[in-house]
Design goal:
Largest sheet: 6 strands, parallel
Order of helices and strands: HEHEHEHEHHEEHEEHEHEHEEHEHE
Number of strands: 14
Length: about 325
């Protein structure tokens, strides 16, 4: 959102933040948000509690009326999570000239190919049920919930837009402007591995994760490199302890990786990961190299294999995707 704001800095702007309804996740999100958002860029920030007493439709209607009363001619709305009904409804009912989908990690690839390219979200399994909901919301709250809609793209990825869909490339101009005025030190012979909660989310087993990390250390440490592991905030301490014992230097950061290097005065020379979005964003900001370590899809949870394959296909357009094998796995791969 900061990047979209920076790109259109000459226009009036409002940022709407809706926190998670779970207290623990809300606290973590608010801390992360405080580290990321530069309040000076925004004319106004509206904070919304994720817990809504009663109907969310009533809550959305109230906010729509409030925002439209100040400016009825809204030019653009940028939305991060189109799968969230609250923000999807809010964006559509503000009736802007254009609605842009902002990247929310690599999920943008999945959403573009499975939903936005087809012109609707979510997947409609029961047309009669969806139509009944549409009529009810329209009559009861005066809100529109179209079965089909058009969201454009504001993205770092080389995604193919569908018919009549606009694509605006995100080059991280705002963060680049900060880095240019910042003195960073390049750490020689240090490679950063950007973590992700893949085993915590059940996409792969922890055993397979550890095996892959052994392969990573075997490949890169042999060249005299130290590997610093930057975990995602949801990665478990027990798993990170294993990485420590394997020789990885684990550093937990309290901010997003894109800002973490700047905050610590570091100019990375190379980053690696499985398929973290940072493989695309950090080279854009810091000018470093990146490599994606490919997972064996047979070791990935079946329901996630298609999406991860899509991600690797998109990444191959931008960065090297490498395969690392155990000796005893050669025949299987």
């Amino acid at each position: 959102m900061q990047e979209a704001r920076y790109l259109f800095k000459d226009q009036k702007n409002i940022l709407i933040v809706r926190y998670d309804s779970q207290p623990e996740r809300k606290l973590k999100a608010s801390k992360l948000f405080d580290n990321v958002i530069n309040n000076l860029l925004w004319e106004k920030i509206i904070y919304i509690d994720g817990y809504v007493k009663g109907s969310i439709y009533k809550d959305i209607k109230k906010l729509v009326i409030e925002l439209k009363s100040k400016d009825n001619n809204i030019d653009k709305v940028f939305i991060g999570e189109v799968r969230n009904l609250y923000f999807r409804l809010l964006a559509i009912n503000l009736k802007p000239r254009l609605i842009y989908k902002v990247d929310d990690g690599a999920s943008s690839i999945h959403i573009q190919y499975h939903y936005l390219k087809k012109g609707y979200y979510p997947k409609i399994n029961n047309l009669l049920k969806e139509y009944t909901k549409y009529i009810y919301i329209k009559i009861r709250y005066g809100l529109i919930l179209p079965l089909k809609f058009k969201f454009h793209l504001f993205t770092i990825f080389d995604l193919d837009p569908h018919r009549n869909q606009k694509k605006m490339s995100n080059y991280y101009s705002y963060l680049n402007s900060l880095i240019k005025n910042n003195e960073n030190t390049k750490r020689k012979n240090v490679i950063y591995f950007m973590g992700a909660p893949l085993s915590e989310d059940g996409r792969i087993s922890e055993e397979y994760f550890i095996m892959k990390m052994r392969q990573v250390s075997d490949k890169f440490e042999i060249s005299g490199n130290n590997i610093v592991y930057i975990p995602h905030r949801r990665e478990s301490d027990s798993k990170l302890n294993i990485l420590n014992e394997m020789g990885y230097e684990v550093e937990r950061w309290d901010d997003i990786a894109e800002l973490g290097f700047k905050k610590r005065g570091i100019l990375p020379s190379k980053i690696i990961s499985f398929y973290s979005t940072t493989l695309i964003t950090i080279p854009l900001i810091y000018g470093c190299s990146a490599e994606s370590v490919e997972l064996d899809l047979t070791q990935v949870r079946e329901q996630d294999r298609g999406d991860i394959k899509l991600i690797y296909n998109e990444y191959r357009k931008i960065i090297p995707v490498i395969k690392l094998y155990e000796v005893h796995d050669d025949k299987n791969n």
